Amino acid sequence: MTSTQRSPLRATLLIEGARQGALQMAIDEVLLDDAAERGNCWLRFYQWSEPTVSLGYFQAYADRAHHAASQASAVVRRQTGGGAIVHDRELTYCLAVPVAHPLAADATRLYDAVHQALIEVLSAGGIAATLCGDLAAHTEIAPFLCFQRRSPQDVVVGAAKIGTAKICGSAQRRRRGAILQHGSLVLAASAAAPELPGIEELTGQSLAATALSKIWADRIAARLPLELSGGVLPPQLEREAEARTVAKYADSAWTRRR
Hints:
By secondary structure, the protein is α/β, with parallel strands linked by helices. It has a single domain (about 10-255), classed as 2-Layer Sandwich (BirA Bifunctional Protein, domain 2), CATH 3.30.930. It is built from 6 helices and 11 strands. The strands form 2 sheets. The chain has an 8-stranded mixed β-sheet, with helices on both faces. It is globular, with a radius of gyration of 17 Å. The protein starts with 8 loop residues before the first strand and ends with a helix. Mean pLDDT is about 90; it is low at about 1-5.
């Protein structure tokens, strides 16, 4: 049986509320570890309890001084690369896939499946979104904010008065062959990043995060394919995430490591 004919991968769907940023990053990492060590697959959607800047793994902490609007925001460091993201009026997703499944070896397919699923969802609601493709810009000095950078697989929406804006981007991290992909969808502009329009500014539509999560999850599942079952984060993984929050993501030594 080829990978394209393979039975759907069983995955647990988590649609969660808002939590503090360091804990959200710890949960994502714990799900990656669980995929690597126990072979489980997870698809999670969540939000942030306060405006928070997540720095890319390789970004210098000092660079955030150049972005005045987000100075009062909390700050964490992700385990994935890329530019800084201001998490506020947005929806974040996380997909953790075990090494035993062919999807873990096909990074491009994961990006394409999640982003094309989003494009389908938005299209059904009358919002025309596309992949960035040839619109991607390459500069010698990358902007501080991730959503001011463009790669071919980013999702963009155009508006007559604003132009084309990036609304969704993703990044990946591997661990012992398992893969974590997480990314952000900007629902509306944040006071901590007013230069970045969201779907609301671009289209005039206000989307509900929970309802959007359910529809997007179903489209992702159809494309990969996944066999989704709803659940909650098991107590053991919750404890692991809380411990990792204290030991790593809420520790200034990690946040300021570069």
